[in-house]
Amino acid sequence: MLYRDLGKTGEKVSILGFGGMRFPTINNQPNRIDEKEASKMLKYGIDNGINIIDTAYSYHTLDFNEPGKSEPFLGDFLSTGYREKVLISTKLPSWIVEKKEDMDIFLDQQLDRLKTESIDIYLIHSLKEDYWKNLTNLNIFEFMDNALSDGKIKHIGFSFHDELDLLLEILDSYEWEVVLTQMNYLDEGYQSGINGVQYLSSINMGNMIMEPLRGGKLVDNIPPEVEKIWNSAPIKRSPVEWAFKYLWDMPGISTVFSGMSTLEQVKENVSIANNSYPNTLTIEEKNVIKEVSRAYRDKKDVPCTQCNYCMPCPQKVDIPTCFKEYNIAKMLNNPEASSMQYFSLIDEENYASSCTKCGECVHMCPQMINIPNELEKVKKLFGR
Ligand code: SF4
Ligand code: SF4
């Protein structure tokens, strides 16, 4: 398996990383990891070259405000002789930090839960505007300086689910070393997207990638029109292989975290990683991927281009984001995942349900979308 530099950290990471949010569970309960099976998967992955695992305070929980089971499970597993073989990446639960001391409390708990003296890569979880504002008001910079100088963490970064301008603003605020962003061939224009990846690469920032398969939706229940394109490609590959090859073709990406749930998935992904190299996709192959992406996009229900001309709405409805998440739900036929994004990215006062149908936005839309009518559909799909 190839290893790449993690930006300027001095670390070398395997191009395939283990995502610790989708371990197999007992009776489909997220807070009950099937530890025997998950341990087998981790052993196989690490014995076959994976050297980085990503987790978070809240992975494998029923309530994202509570500590999950992923960290303590990994702490137990790694203490069986695997700790020295991997880098641990975990995250500060930024949305439940209320006081300055909370940050130290969470970090100390995480060191305990992971049974380690130092966390290799510590990420501020899921930064978006309001969390970032709160954390800067609480002087997160001092917390990070101290955690680094005490040796409790070795490298500092953040994970990100917002737009490019906020990414740039946060990058300018501190000596970050690593950023975790969402990327796959369907998300080039979503959140910080491909522009974010290219910018991070241009400044030699360690760029770790999440959601390479969009929570499995790029490989499960593939629409017939997409299947047809894959089948007509000059080289026969599984959709999983296409999705990973798309990412590993980009030399600026350090590692791609995959939240694997079975041993077969680990074996398949390791085997794909063993045959993936940067700058090797041909123009023809890239065109196949573009065609697939277009076929998914054609399934969009509302022709919103995210131009923002309809904003601001007097009732504060976040019209473009409402349509964006609604369209993704339609494209991937996965309202559950989009609903999670909808409720985490949009504040309650900005939901589609705040629309009073005043009609002020309608004449602003160059796509002539009947915005209040279409927002009704969003409301119906996601509720309040
Ligand atoms: S119709 Fe709805 S979305 Fe449009 S401006 Fe009025 S309240 Fe806002
Ligand atoms: S003006 Fe129309 S196309 Fe532009 S963001 Fe608003 S709804 Fe979408």
TrEMBL record:
Residues 342-374 form the 4Fe-4S ferredoxin-type domain. GO terms for molecular function: iron-sulfur cluster binding. PROSITE patterns: 4FE4S_FER_1, 4FE4S_FER_2. Pfam families: Aldo_ket_red, Fer4_9. CDD domains: AKR_Fe-S_oxidoreductase (cd19096). This is 4Fe-4S ferredoxin-type domain-containing protein.
